Amino acid sequence: MNVPAPINRREMLRQSCAGFGMLALHGLLGSEASxxxxxxxxxxxxxxxxxxxxxxxxxxxxxxxxVDTFDPKPLLDRDHGKPxxxxxxxxxxxxxxxxxxxxxxxxxxxxxxxxxxxxxxHVGQCADELCVIRSMHGTNPAHGGALLKLHTGSDTFVRPSxxxxxxxxxxxxxxxxxxxxxxxxxxxxxxxxxxxxxxxxAWCQGTPLGNASVSAEQAVVRHIKNPRTPTPLQRLQLDLxxxxxxxxxxxxxxxxxxxxxxxxxELAFRMQSSMPEIQGIEGETExxxxxxxxxxxxxxxxxxxxxxxxxxxxxGVRFIQVTHSDSFVQWDQHGDLLKGHxxxxxxxxxxxxGLLRDLRARGLxxxxxxxxxxxxxxxxxxxxxxxxxxxxxxxxxWMAGGGVKGGMAYGATDDxxxxxxxxxxxxxxxxxxxxxxxxxxxxxxxxxxxGRDYKLTDLxxxxxxxxxx
Length: 469
Description:
The chain has 469 residues and is an alpha/beta fold.
């Protein structure tokens, strides 16, 4: 009988080292899988190394005019009052007239010399951070359809919002907070569908803080405190409900709606301890409050929203939207362009610049993508004598931080600013690029529903690689 020769401890460790490594790897992967199964909001690995960890979307509802903000047109100044020397779209939203020059001058800012309108002197001073996309285009000239297209990728069907897709793909870095928050959202033109989850799990949908009809000071999670029931008793009640729900779940088998309901109860309980402190800004220094314009009644409201966005971003919320809309159509100047755009820009210019500077100072801008824009732009031809109509055919949005090149303008509209002409960027392309910067392949981020795989970009969309640093 052959007896195996004994081995010493060193030889045993040498032969077993690979096995120890596999055990360690199994433990790590098992922990991640266990965390994901216990909490679907747990942070998930992206498809590939990400440039950005989170996004702050500054929505200028109503459609700011590209030729009055970030897309200067010398020929529009020269030919003011003349009939447009190009064909108008086959379908227009309203009757328009001759060319209308911009009431504002453009100045070059920063080392890049990027031109920015006098409407945005504070943002202009951050020009070297901006990647201005001048060749955006869509298809829908109506606010409702265009806002749905911007938020969900579809203007005809109820689809998950961009923030919901990001939540589904990446989860949140702070499981005591939602992955997706929207501050003072508008209830018009798509309303809840603009931050809804549609057929994605319910935990993917945005959590609204206030709405466009209330001030930012009132933009809080409702019923976050329960003055009548002590926390330990709430925990007992929740445990009982959870036990009953899990029994139903075992009997029913897989039930995404019930699973999402269970998780929503748990998240709401955890938020009671985390959300009140984050919603309040009392701990911020006076210098920080002044940076955002909280010392000026003109800028205080939007400044507070931007400051809240930074506070949520640094605490791990994945998608934060801030909406500028204190009326039905905030930037929608069909008439009185000079007065309307002047008022609107004055309210947001300093807070936006403050946000960019604060993110940079805190080391957050490199991995935070800031997106600015509206659902479309405006025509370079006049509506009436001093207004501009809707224009989805060529408009401007900009990005900053989060892996994009700063101090540059990408793409171009025609000589008068009506149509996207060079390096055109469709809404689907914008979505594909945002997901790419967050480390997700828009072709792989899918959800099976009603017999087919859905994507944010549906059947279109290309990553705009030239703007990626």
